[in-house]
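Structure tokens please, single chain.
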Amino acid sequence: MKQISKEQKSNLARLLATENLNIEHRKVKTAYFIPKTRTLCLPIWEDMSNDLYDLLCGHEVGHALYTPQDETVLKEAMKNIPHSYFNVVEDIRIDMNMKKKYPGLRKSYFNGYKELVERDFFGNIQEDANSMRFIDRLNIFTKSGNLEQTIQFNEQEQEFLNKSQKLVTFDDVIKLATEIFEYSKEENYDPENDPLQQEQAQNENGEEGEEETQSEESESNGEEENQQDNDEGDTTSSPDDKPATNEEAETQSKPSTGEKGSHNPDINAGVTKPTNVAQTDVAFEENKSALSNTDEKTKDNLYVTLPSIKSSVIIDYKEVSNKMSEYLSTTYSDKSYSYNIKDIAKRNTRFAEFKRKQMKTVHYMAKEFEMKKAADNYNKTQQAVSGSLNMNKLHSYKYNDDIFKKLQVEPGAKNHGMIMFIDWSGSMSDNLEDTINQTLNLVMFCKAVQIPFEVYAFSDINSKYFEPNSEMNDYWRSDRKSIQVAPFNHKPGDLFVENVTLINFLSSRMKPREYNEGMQNLFGIGECYGSHHRGRSYRSAFEPQSEEDYNVVQSPQCMRLGGTPLDPCIIAATTIVKEFITKNRIQKMNTIFLTDGCGHTLQNVVLNDGRVSNENSHKHNIVIRDNETKTNTTYDGYGFNSTHKPMLDLFKRKTGSKVIGFYISARNNVSYYDISNFLPVEAGNEGVEAVRQKMRKDKVGIITGNGYDELFILPKKNLKIVDEEANIEPSMTPAKMKQQFLKTLKTKKTSRVLLNKFVERVA
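Here you go.
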């Protein structure tokens, strides 16, 4: 039996309903519809085929579309008529309407009901269908795929059957159900021959036998136990009988946020139940609930929404520049030895030299990119007839049809865009200098080919530290889970998204002076964390030995490394990327996330009283409901594929962006865990080895299908940019010189792994 995709079936329900219904799979026995919120709640069904799932899903959508939702009217109509009679007749109407509206459902209805009959969901009918009441024969006849030819009706019953095929309104249903119920009081029916009555009698006899056995066992317990029971009485509970907690009560009751639809079996609560009922409908409702997984081990689904972001989540590049300038002007002076103003000038000189070296390769790759793009456009160029006569070919009209002028139709150029999010966590310190150098190369390329870009560092450092005259000089972990600190507009029912700050270091919006200053500052931060300067970060421990030696330029505390709030970053990036696409009219968006591991998991939910708690989330499966795309995303909270992958999938659905990931290993050799963490469990050793083989060949491993369109895994040693010149000797032949030049050029390109992979994907 094929695995049912709940997301696909949710989409089916929406399509059938011709509206974006909210679809929820809950730990309930029967499906129900909440008209106020337009929510269709389906049980966690198990052990069923695709046809049966389609049948039950289509059936419930039919009730949502055609069955009235006013329970008061329904209860009034059912005062003297069993609910099961209404169920049978109404099912005929809605199933008929659904099959007319969606002919593709006919096969699923036929196969689904046939499966239910074979599994005795309507009772153990066998070959005795004609011994049942008319209402039960009518139910089986209109639903069954293999018994309808053997079921017999008298003249009056045939008239009822004909009326059932012409039902239009719910008033027609009430009228016909009333007529059939009145007829049932007079019809020729013998309960002793009814297979369903016989089955019920056998079940009752079995229950009575069990009760007698239990009674005999209780009598043999002795006078002492009986005396104790008499003393305690029925109103006294034992010490172990504790009242149900609020949470247990919520679990036991069906969750709802509005009135249930009229097809729910609970509709007749408080209405007197007559003994004359449609046994097939009663059996079906009881057996259908058995398909629902409601055992204690099964977790219910907790549906949550995501909050919107506040503007404070972004520290714009102008704020970053002002903060850096303020820090340098107040910390560095010409009179200080440890923080001498000359250190800033030396840093700028080193950056100018770095930029000069990098631009040689960047310009070459930019030229190569333009050539590839031009060749691709030429390859896609088509010729079209203009409709205007070519006077130079008009003389050949008798033997040549090609006498019209031609047009060159070239495909429109794609407007690319790039946003990069860099993990600004403490574990990145060893790799930060090389990461920044790679990023600067990518930015210089985007600048050269005029691709709009933004570069953010994401961290959980509180954005309030960037405010002017801020006295917050330290960071406490408790801030991360504070609803007052988090830059999101939380409301009850939201998944609590922890604090994240996006530091906008570089942007294509920058003016030339701002751009150069931003590049210098980011380059300087990379130097601070470079392995060559690790021991020189503390001025008291380092004294320059010559003019060539130098102190690295420090950065303000608000830009220090923190944690890895990857999921909060992805959530905030959704809004940022959508606005970026709109503002720059991007046609092909590329979003890059660079990290050195998994980020924080989100396990807290905002309660109705505004508190943040993880009690409910531990007892439920968290499902993120997105009202924009009308999709549900399961968020486990443990492991990359259970947390970050769902967030990335939701990000792609909402933005349409291509998502590229870079994972930087803290080791020179990537470990088994580094790779397996991003692979599905079934990949095993073979999957890990395949990635390693690719890494040995191309210096970088590639994994797909984990939320990223492509995830590139790099060992630490392969992150460093190589700029060695070709080793040319006078004795070399021209062929060997060419080979050496090509080898050196290839090394320069492949060592710029961020830029190289980006160019490959946008060219």
